[in-house]
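Q: For a teaching session next week I want to show students how multiple molecules come together into a single three-dimensional assembly. I've collected the sequence lines for a complex. Could you give me the predicted structure tokens for the whole thing so I can convert them for display?
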Amino acid sequence: MAAIRLAFTPLLPSLVRQVSRSPILSQMSWSKLLVCSSLMRENRFCSSVPKPQHQKVKVIFLLSDGRRQEVNAKVGDNLLDVITENDIDIDGFGACEGTLACSTCHLIFKQEDYDKIPDKPTDEELDMLDLAYGLTDTSRLGCQVIVTKDMDGLEISVPKGVADARSPQS
Amino acid sequence: MNSVRRIARCFTGTPEILTWRKVVTLQQWFSPSCRCRSSDSQKSSSSSSPGQQCCVAVVGSGPAGFYTAQQLLKGDHNLIVDIYEKLPVPFGLVRFGVAPDHPEVKNVIHTFTNTAKNERCNFFGNVEVGRDVSLKDLRDAYSAVILCYGASANRTLGIPGEDLPNVISARSFVGWYNGVPQDKELQVNLDCESAVVLGHGNVALDVARILLTPVSILEKTDISEHALKALHRSQVSKVHVVGRRGPLQVAFTIKELREMIKLPGTQTVIRREDVEGLDKVIDDLPRPRRRLTELLYKTAVAPSSTDTRLWEQATKEWRLVFLRSPVQILHDNNGSVSGVEFAVNKLQGKPSQFQKAVTTDLRETIKCGLVLSSIGYRSVPLDSSLPFDSKNGIIDNENSRVRNEQGLYCAGWVGKGPVGVILGTMTDAFETGKLVLHDLHSGHLKIPERMKRDQLINQIKDKAVTFTDWQRIDCAEMAAGEKLGKPREKITDIQTLLNVARRS
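A: Of course. Below is the structure for the complete assembly, covering every listed component.
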């Protein structure tokens, strides 16, 4: 993906057109594409060395309703991408599509895992996290955490929204 | 990047119009062939026949309305959700409230669009509940009505001079630069050096930022052209953002504050004496308040070298002013605003977020030629029969159920009050949606004859703007924006909107 991002950034509009006709890629949502392109614009996740394709690690999401979802995550993707690509259904997750304008992709790590994440949170990420429900000291925004090969077997909690405490009793 | 978005949107838009035209004709709606063509992946549950399909109405198509609809459609694969909207265009404050220089926040529109394209979701724009249809009509025709119409009025200052020209509610000012039809003619005179913004919330910072942001940045946003022209000629170089209480009680969030501090060409001025002593309480605050207070403190006492370098080249400034309540708005002999007289306040109680302000006998005047009042919104009752809490300006409700009114619910600002970011509204809307489904599935709600709902729609179908119609407006606005080098130029005239909507 990184290689594609680097090579095709100037050709993006034509890429978008082609993708729109491709039966395989058309399943990818437009918003997804837009996220990719916005990330490209900010150059946040581009490394100078293209990552080998298809390298995947196992990541486990512990959902607030008790579900445990084990997925294959592409190294180099961010965790919002991973959740979207694996169709993990979490209401409202990633509302701003990875542009650091909301806190809906809030994830909670174990302390030792949190400490190992190579990219430390920026002020801007912390600013958005401050608005998250159930904020902890080991909270991150999924859109800002890039999967590395050391993350194999990582367990990540998806917190509850605060209003979930309100039970629909009549 | 903008061109990519435009291309992407046009690609999603065009095939929709061609292959999936949702026509307000009942036979077509319910014919199996029409359903097969739908691009939506959700399948209706096979257990019930269409005759048993329940219908619910959502009033308002802002974030509360769309997130409620999303939850309802997801939680019951047989339910029909009709969204009613007063204006010919959807998305409420995402279109008309979110600042033009915050386009990322508007990405939620993609999710709303997916919801609207669900075959069981219908959008009826240009239909005002309370005028074109009554609340009673809706309640008779639907199993549940969820009111999501937000907070359309603003709190007033109640002080002399409030009615002077150029004393403007921030709501109208935001509407003016965001292309709200009723605010397009707002008389805004920016031919003055100094402006006062009353309030310490995010809207106050939004309007201050729009006043001070270089036009070279704004002209690349979807800000309305009439506002851009006025801002181009603006003489405003000093904005005082004034609040009743102190730095521990500000209601704006840290992202908006940081943006102001880093605003190109503008210096931030926070008086050292206003933040004195805060360093002693910072450590005990919960993290969000701690980080916000730290940023205020550092900016006043020890700004970063990056910030000071930036400020050296500044030609404009904004001042964060604390502990001042407006007493009257002053004017000169011509009746033009000349300043605001403030009472100086002091805080009571131990330093905390909850301290109260008490007015002293001291008075102070800030000279200005423009006053923007941003002291909060309030909702209005849509119908005289609606239980309404006038004190708080919200519908009288208990956990989103309108008090003593079976089948009537509210979500978002109209029920919770006009505070918080989209996340709060989203959570509230999801919970309200779940609650409605719970009540519906446990047999607490009536299921009116389907005919009643169909008749109601027949009444409004000629007037209503459908989602397909909106997509035509959407494309026209983006095309107009492209000519101006903007992502979008909003159409601000209702009749023009309707004309474009009906162009086939």
